[in-house]
Automatic annotation (TrEMBL), chain A:
Keyword Nucleotide-binding among record annotations: yes
PANTHER family: TEICHOIC ACIDS EXPORT ATP-BINDING PROTEIN TAGH
GO molecular function: ABC-type transporter activity; ATP binding; ATP hydrolysis activity
Family that this chain belongs to: Belongs to the ABC transporter superfamily.
Protein name, entry field: Unannotated protein
Domain ABC transporter: 19-256
GO-annotated cellular components: membrane
Record's keyword terms, sorted: ATP-binding, Nucleotide-binding, Transport
Transmembrane segments: none
Automatic annotation (TrEMBL), chain B:
Domain ABC transmembrane type-2: 52-283
Record-annotated membrane-spanning stretches: 55-77, 138-157, 169-189, 210-235, 261-281
Species of the source: freshwater metagenome
Any one of the GO BP annotations: lipopolysaccharide transport
Full protein name: Unannotated protein
Coiled-coil zones: none
InterPro entries cross-referenced by the UniProt entry: ABC2_TM (IPR013525), ABC2_TM_bact-type (IPR047817)
GO CC terms: plasma membrane
Subcellular location: Cell inner membrane
Length: 258, 291
């Protein structure tokens, strides 16, 4: 009965992102030399195919905040990188109403440059003018809580500090579609609160947010819908509480408290 | 209705689709400040951890010129080309600009993985930015070249100085512009090849070395190959040589720019960036991939 109601609602809602049968296959050279030579490993290099995402399809509507969960290596980041257009899927395609902006933990901009200069480069690459970026810079610095360190090279930052700065750069403007890849899990409690508030704000201004996180609590706090990926396959898609409970049962965690 | 038709009916576009060539170029023009800022920042950062900092911009070419001047001056002995120091420095500095653009262009995608993976912008801005960075270094070298040209015009035997500056010098900025255009194309081609087959990275030192020896940087191709005019004609079809020799013709006393060199240089400057931009743009969707 809920499904019927949902279908009726979907027809009137405006789709923002359509993921259509996305397959992502990496071809990687693996050195076949295993730790234990007795189990039949050969010492020759061979090309291995890693099927990271398998035929995933879903549609995201305007104003939704989508949480993506799954154990490590389940294809979450691969999927989101293809949603952002940074990796083209091997099969299938992603359609979107605007260019999605990805904000990931692995994304160090220029480690040898100061935080200030990274703000400038990030702003220019996102298409701001130099003047606009300069005007935004103090607010970005403040949001990231890095006033005392902004003139130091980013290589001297802790992982939490650089994640905060990257989040602040990307969140400095209302994106139509923003993808946040575990950026919040490294921030401290105080920053987590601030960024969750900012994400809700963006959601309210009709922006669509994707959030990948291992923190079930922050997923439940911010998301209106949750997608669970397991070994590259879309395992469940729907109400946050239902999906998270099923996920917790699967991983063996009993409470929803993180 | 399948999903792709559904997406199209609501005006959604495929993410990461390569835009048509001319809208791609328009987007590049819109983000030009990004390329410029990236190159000035990278250039500053390259020297930031050294004690002498920015002085390396002028120190490095001085040491380079001194080393080559000493070694080739001694090796070549009386076979030195006319007006040797001015001849050599023009060759060494312009060659290091062009080979630098080739090398840093080749690593511009591979070496900026952080930027490529986290931000979406026309990737061609990276090889362009690497050429701008080389261009910043070129200024210090040109200043040093100017000093050399003025000093070598001094005749120590007669204690007289003949002003080497003539009308030809006014045309030198045109040659620099042509050279920058050629190098941009070269950097784009190298960037794509290296992004798709890292093997190029292994070969770059050898390619640069060979180019150094066949481009007449420290000896005169004309006198070495005087007996084999056909071989000389083939060697003259080398952009590195053409830009160096044309610049010598304009700047160094005792050398004249030929019409043939002008035509060749203009040809390189027009064809290479067009071919390079098209070739690079064709693979635009591939650059962010890990494999």
């Amino acid at each position: 009965m809920t499904t019927k109601k949902q279908t009726a609602a979907t027809e009137t809602r405006q789709p923002v992102v359509v993921v259509d049968g996305v397959d992502i296959v990496y071809k990687v050279y693996a050195s076949g030399k295993r730790a234990n030579r007795w189990n039949g490993g050969s010492a020759k290099q061979k090309l291995r195919e890693v099927h990271a995402v398998k035929n995933v399809s879903f549609t995201v509507y305007q104003g939704e905040t989508i949480g993506i969960i799954g154990t490590n290596g389940s294809g979450k980041s691969s999927l989101l990188r293809s949603v952002a257009g940074l990796t083209q899927p091997t099969n299938g395609a992603v359609y979107a109403s605007a260019r999605p902006v990805l904000l990931g933990v692995g994304a160090v901009l220029m480690p040898s440059l100061s935080g200030e200069k990274n703000i400038m480069l990030g702003g220019l690459a996102m298409g701001y003018s130099k003047k606009e970026t300069a005007e935004l810079a103090p607010a970005i610095t403040e949001f990231a809580g890095l006033e005392d360190f902004i003139d130091l090279p980013m290589r001297t930052y802790s992982s939490g500090m650089s994640a905060r700065l990257r989040f602040a750069i990307a969140a400095s403007r209302n994106h139509d579609i923003l993808i946040i890849d575990e950026a919040l899990s490294v921030g401290d409690q105080q920053f987590r609160k601030r960024s969750e508030a900012r994400m809700r704000e963006m959601r309210d201004t009709a922006g669509t947010v994707f959030l990948v996180s291992h923190s079930i609590k922050s997923i439940l706090d911010t998301c209106s819908r949750v997608i669970w990926l397991e070994k590259g396959v879309l395992k469940m898609d729907g109400d946050p509480l239902e999906v998270c409970q099923a996920y917790n049962r699967y991983t063996g965690v009993t409470s929803t408290e993180d | 209705m399948n999903l792709s038709e559904y997406a199209a009916s609501h005006g959604l576009k495929r993410v990461g689709a390569r835009p048509p060539f001319f809208s791609y170029l328009r987007e590049v023009w819109r983000r030009r400040v990004f390329a410029w800022t990236l190159s000035t920042y990278t250039s500053e950062a390259a020297n930031a951890r050294t004690r002498l900092g920015r002085w390396w911009l002028i120190l490095l070419p001085t040491i380079q010129a001194g080393t080559y001047g000493l070694i080739f001056g001694l090796i070549l002995g009386s076979n030195r080309p006319h007006n040797f120091l001015a001849f050599l420095f023009t060759g060494v500095f312009l060659f290091s600009f062009m080979s630098g653009a080739f090398q840093s262009g080749a690593s511009s995608i591979v070496g900026n993985a952080g930027l490529v993976r986290s931000l979406s912008f026309p990737r061609i801005l990276l090889p362009i930015s690497s050429v701008i960075q080389q261009f910043i270094n070129l200024w210090a070298q040109l200043a040093l070249l100017l000093v050399t040209l003025l000093v070598t015009a001094f005749d120590f035997a007669n204690l007289s100085w003949q002003n080497p500056i003539d009308l030809d010098w006014a045309l030198f900025p045109v040659v620099v512009l042509l050279m920058v255009l050629f190098c941009s194309g070269l950097a784009m081609i190298a960037a794509r090849i290296n992004a798709q087959a890292r093997d190029l990275g292994k070969l770059i030192p050898f390619i640069t070395r060979i180019a150094f020896y066949v481009s007449g940087v420290f000896f005169s191709l004309e006198s070495v190959l005087a007996a084999w005019p056909t071989v000389l004609a083939i060697f003259e079809f080398n952009p590195f040589y053409d830009f160096i020799q044309l610049s010598r013709g304009l700047l160094v006393q005792g050398y004249e720019p030929s019409a043939k060199l002008w035509i060749l240089c203009i040809g390189w400057a027009v064809i290479t960036p067009i071919v390079g931009a098209l070739y690079f743009w064709k693979a635009e969707e591939v650059y962010g991939r890990d494999d």
